Fold this protein.
Amino acid sequence: MIIGILMLCYLLFALVSFSAAVSGGRIWFWSAISMGLGLLAFHGSVIAIRGVQAGHLPWSNTYETLILLGFLMMAIYWTTFPKFRALSVGGFAGLTAAVLLGLCSLLSSDIEPLLPALKSNWLLFHVTAAILGYASFAVAFGTAGIYLFLDAARKFVSRPEKRGEIEGRLEYLDRLMARLIAVGFAFLTLGISTGAVWANASWGRYWNWDPKETWAFITWALYGALHHVRSMENGSGRGFAVLAFFGFFLVMFTYFGVNFWLASLHAYS
Amino acid sequence: MTTSILRFVNVLIVLICAAAAFGTIPESTLPFLKNPSALFAAKPFVAFLGLLGVFAVSHTVRKGIDLFRMAAADEITTAGRETRLQDFRPARIPFSDLQEYQDRISSVLRSKRYRVIAKMEKLRFSFTGVKDLDGIWGSFLVHAGLVVALLAGLLTYSFADVRDIELQEGATTLLARGGAKIKLEKFSVMLDATGNVASYVSRLLVQDRKGRIEHHDLSVNGPLQIGGVRVFQMRYSVKIREVVLRVYKNGKPFGEITLAPGKKSGLAGLPYTVEAGEIVPDFVIVQGGKAASRSPYFRNPAVSLFLYTSTSPDTPEKQIWVFSDLFLHQGAGPAEWAFAIGRIRKIYSSGMKVSYDPGWPLAYAGFVVMILGAFLSAFVIPRGIRISFVPERRGEESSYECSGACVKDPAGLKYEAGIILRELEPVVKGGGVR
């Protein structure tokens, strides 16, 4: 129920953010900010209450990590906001958060006791770091979506000053996208490394080529390749945005798809 | 790296990723596939990873030499290629008076966290600001860390000895490395106060190579170091040896029957022979009225009992569920014959992993270096900005230009230079306080 309300609020937030971005009006702008920050606090309290009820960190299964992912995604968006003020990205992030929370409806919301294998301090570092990485890639995905939309819209704009404005905006979004991917890559590196250390302490091997590990490696390596693309000449712009956009589907498969389609030691995640 | 090498490395990464993805396909999905996960130990796959390592080494060495030179120079050009950010514009400060404006011009750069060096060279007065130069090490460290982690992987691939062992309670095994013997005395599923599982614990008797005997508890996330190997608690299985049934006649104890799985037993005076069917550890009724187990732990055990009469010894006359307590229907008196579980005798087997892996310390070192590099890359963006003044009209006036250098985020450099130049404008145009 509460997740459904949160989901609807995010859809509304997306609408307000897009309206603020398109109209440029002050009322829309402040509505988007106050609503977004209020939602972030509400979302955070939902996680905190669940943690108190469960008696452990509320990220021990896919249902809980989906809620965490939505929260961290919005937190990252708000961290970038003072510098980049990209309201349209907020709209896209709101939509993505609503979809992520919608996925929760496919899963059991029961609070389960923590499995013995998860009773480790590494749970905090490994899961938080990995989800922060995914969240950063999610905001980059939103930014790439807006970039590609504006890039396509530019062709239909004939007025040079408007065209120049869009080009300036594209440069800005390109910069935001690159920073988000760099931050996501850093946190994913931390998540994979702490996971390896935990696996070594728990399963006797730091790397098992378990499907979850393998797909995390694939995601890490391909985002690493995206850094290479960035450092090439003409490595920014549309091509980079296309890769950042579709890269997120890989993230979602690693995070969500592996649990459903592949047998993994990470069955609980 | 040149663009062509980067393209080749990216193709190699995509190939490795495609192969790795193939290795995760479940065998059952495609019937013609035989153990796709064996690919991860296959030599061609290892060779591909090795090739990736070679490129990472080459990048690390070349970049490392450049970076050490740059760090030693501590100059604007050390951050990357210098680009013009603003062409010459007139400043109202006479060139000869620039010394007096030095503090004000420098403070504009310092307000953005730049370290500033002011330098007069012939007919050029330059203010050079450099910040976050440590960030240039980011990509170098990520590649160096990857090389170390791949080396660790090679070490593990070549020398690690990791085995799964299954030990039944009471059984002893000799560890292949280290020469120690371990005996599983008792396996326990530890429950907490709320009845949830806290841990699995194997109580082990360990005899080392010198013959010393010690007791050790092995639990999940709590490995043991025995000799040169580490032992990990992985899984367990349980086998039912026998079920002891309490028999009641008209609600009063009548006797006990010990049932071995799949065997029928009787009791003198009891008109039935009984056989234990399904044993459910944590009984619950699910949708459709079917019996199921809520968990694998023996918290609410139930036994499905088949009752045979002498007239039909092969076909059960009825089947009933038997629990730890005597089952009575509400309002009804005790049945003539009733049963309850007295005891379920189980034997546990503990699944352990015995690991000898010389690669892990090196892998940890690689991870630390990679993490450091990735965070430096993400959060420390090195930049250099140079504002240069040259004399105009025989030194009565001056003009200034701005150039900058960065290894990444050129748009960010341009943006920041714009802010700096805007803040500098009142100083160079209006003169004002010196």
Summary: Chain B touches chain A through 58 residues (CB under 8 Å).
